[in-house]
Amino acid sequence: MTTHGTTLVLGATGTTGSRVASRLAAGGHRVRAAGRRATTVAGARSVRFDWADPTTFDEALSGTDRVYLLPPIGSSEPAAVMLPLLERARTAGVRRAVLLSSSAIPAGGPATGQIHEALPGLFDEWAVLRPSWFMQNFTGGHPHAQSIRVDGTVSTATGAGRVAFVDADDIAAVAVHALTDDRPPNTDLVITGPQPLSYGDIAAVVTEVTGRTVTHRQLTYEQMRDHLASSMPVEFAALLAGLDRAIAEGSEDRTTDTVHRLTGRPPGTFRAFAERELTATAPN
Question: How large a percentage of the chain has pLDDT more than 70?
Fold first, then answer.
């Protein structure tokens, strides 16, 4: 990799954005770390950026030549705000855009699928990251982590369906290559962990690692939708519950070599992640 201009990292204090920003800075790349509060990020220049406030767009984009794109949180139709930003970005001199999407959403699909479809027509250099479900969903403030702490359950409508959960560290490593390699990917990159696991398997590993019994509570699509709708817009809840239903039907039961091919090392396992991240928070 060689040093380029400046990379704008949206969501620079979030799960993947913080990791992308720190890896870029550690590699000697200039980084503009964007967030609603312009929080200080080590090694980067912080700038305010808010999807709900288009007046923040131009300052964030100024002087950048590539951008790491995270969609607005909780939006089922992000194209309305993202496409105008991308038009501005192209005009401002951004040459490469890397979008964080999902393994469950193809080009032209719902939500970020619309941005995925538009990206090649906007930039000559681009990539769409399509990671599987994050291992970090079982830590911090994610609903799965909260329910594990509160009552020792993980609720989904996935049945016995399996997912090759992926560590956000591995997603960030792929993102940095997509942003900085001399040859742009110009494709989508499905990013998975090394092994498909059911939520029952996940519960068993968490139980073994933490010493606290955790079980998988299986819901119907309708139950999951209504459960999620208590804390988010019903349209987005229906989208997420639908993804669970697709998992139950086998949509995510796969692995890819993306992490190894781009980084030269295998992706981390869920057990290694759990031993690193969950034992420190296990109850007495």
Answer: 97
For residue range 233-280, list pLDDT tens digits in order: 899 899 899 999 999 999 999 999 999 999 999 999 999 999 999 985
> Going by C-beta distance under 8 Å and a sequence separation of 6 or more, which residues neighbour residue 150?
none
Whose CA is closest to 174, among 78, 79, 268?
A: 268
Distance CA 52, CA 232 (A): 17
Choose between 73 and 274: higher pLDDT. 274
- Dump the DSSP string for the chain: ----SEEEETTTTSTTHHHHHHHHHHTT-EEEEEETT----TTSEEEE--TT-GGGHHHHHTT-SEEEE-PPTT-S-THHHHHHHHHHHHHHT--EEEEE--TT--TTSSTHHHHHHHHHHH-SEEEEEEE--BGGGGSTTSHHHHHHHHHSEEEES-TT-EE--B-HHHHHHHHHHHHHSSS---EEEEE--SS-EEHHHHHHHHHHHHSS--EEEE--HHHHHHHHHTSS-HHHHHHHHHHHHHHHTTTT----SHHHHHHSSPPPPHHHHHHHHTGGG---
CA-wise closest residue to 64 among 124, 118, 9: 9
CB burial readout 76-106, b (16+ within 10 A) else e? eebbeebeebbeebeebebbbbbbbbbbbbb
Alpha-carbon span 155 to 146, nearest angstrom: 11
**Average pLDDT of the chain?**
94
